[in-house]
Design a protein that fits this description.
Layout (H helix, E strand, L loop, with lengths): L8 E6 L5 H7 L3 H9 L1 E5 L11 E7 L5 H12 L1 E7 H6 L11 H8 L23 E3 L6 H12 L11 H8 L4 H5 L15 H4 L20
Parallel strand pairs: 1-2, 1-3, 3-4, 4-5
Length: 223
């Protein structure tokens, strides 16, 4: 961990997103207070700490890459962090912003903005791992607060976080949920979606829509 500080340092960086994954941090309550006793959170704009260029042990990144400036920033974040962890669907897969990848984004710019030439927009929305090496991906929309805290705790103990490698269906069974496919004939992505959400949607009688990504995908490859 950091040599210049007696406690490990953590940063939380935001790119194109709704801030939901950062709110998952803030909503951790007592767990966040406990974490603050073990680490120094040096950059977290949502919480008021600003030191974007600080060297840190663990950098969490929320959001996808959509501008040339984003590409510069994420390379700086990677260079300034020992571990880089992406949190949430936007950072791990592009999120809602990536829907524009299916269509002609430039045509939309022409139709909506009076001066589209002033826009700084990449041709496609990109997940973080497409541009830099990512050490760990935590899926979800938003990310699961408990998984985030467990990942930090494991890294602080010098180990690699071990996340569950099962499907949402396994979580449904443990919760005693009635299968929405069998009972209601609904489409459900639970059989192919990575566990971690606690099977929230099926618990309320709604099919899983896959926000935790394809089952088996946890660690990102090097860019």
């Amino acid at each position: 961990m950091s040599q210049a500080n007696t406690r490990p340092t953590v940063a939380v960086h935001k790119f194109s997103s709704c801030d939901g994954c950062q709110l998952a941090f803030l909503n951790a309550g007592e767990a966040l207070l406990t974490l603050a006793e073990r680490v120094d959170i040096v950059h977290f704009a949502e919480a008021g700490m600003m030191a974007e260029e600080a060297l840190v042990d663990i950098a969490f990144v929320e959001g996808s890459l959509n501008t040339a400036h984003d590409l510069q920033r994420i390379r700086q974040v990677r260079a300034h962090s020992r571990y880089l962890i992406t949190i949430g669907a936007c950072a791990t897969a592009g999120g809602v912003q990536a829907l524009r990848n299916l269509h002609d984004g430039k045509g939309w710019h022409q139709a909506i903005y009076a001066h589209p030439e002033y826009l700084d927009s990449l041709a496609t929305a990109k997940p973080i791992a497409s541009q830099v090496k990512v050490d760990l991906e935590l899926w979800g929309c938003p990310v699961n607060t408990q998984q985030v805290m467990q990942a930090i705790s494991t890294l602080l103990h010098g180990a690699t976080p071990a996340l569950p490698q099962e499907k949402v269906c396994a979580e449904c069974k443990r919760r005693g949920n009635v299968c929405v496919v069998v009972a209601q004939g609904q489409a459900c992505l639970g059989p192919s979606t990575h566990a971690g959400c606690g099977a929230i949607c099926p618990a309320f009688g709604r099919g899983c829509y896959g926000c935790y990504g394809p089952q088996g995908v946890i660690y990102a490859g090097a860019a």
